[in-house]
Amino acid sequence: MVIKRMLSAAFVILLFCTVLTGCSNSSSSSQDQLGLHLSSDPSDKTVISTVTRRMNWVVDYSDMEVLVRDSDLIVIASVQSIDSVVAENGFYNTHATIRISDTLKGQSSDSEISIAATGGYVSYEEYVKNLQPEEMEKQGLDWTEEEKQNGVIKAQTDQQNLLQEGEQYILCLRESEELGYVTVGSYHGIMRMDGDKVWRKENAGIFDKEAIIQSIREAQES
């Protein structure tokens, strides 16, 4: 059974929005009526601001068949290190080193590879270096020195899973001349594993791990 979650398909990025928050622990979560935790973000970082990019796609990457088709390499891997989080191509990318434990599509000559993924936890220094003074004033960036030193800005696309050191993921990747391996469909190619469950988004789309793996295998046969 191929798992699908249909989304409306429009064109490119239509909206950027910045939501300023107070200091909070990003691993806090709410519960639904069944007692399931609705947040899959395992980070214990102090988030002092959240920047969300909302995207509409010409290609429906919520469709597993499409996601698998456009992936050169699909792996189960753990994040060994977060090497940098920098502004690139109009948003933020996390550059990380991953260790592959299983390959679901394609081949990699190395068990450890570098990848780039949309979004990440951005330092205050990286966040403000490209902002004009009027933009900083508009956003009310009056953080304390402690917040500047220890806090982070959480930059994500549509409640995506962010790469975290030590966490395990199913990653759908394609080769890019500019960045090497990058996640397919931005956040769609980052599925965080949590025991026998998989989160396709941070706050939604929780599936059985074996069902996701089977749907990836079946998509290659269709």
UniProtKB/TrEMBL annotation:
<keyword id="KW-0732">Signal</keyword>
<protein>
    <submittedName>
        <fullName>Uncharacterized protein</fullName>
    </submittedName>
</protein>
<feature type="signal peptide">
    <location>
        <begin position="1"/>
        <end position="21"/>
    </location>
</feature>
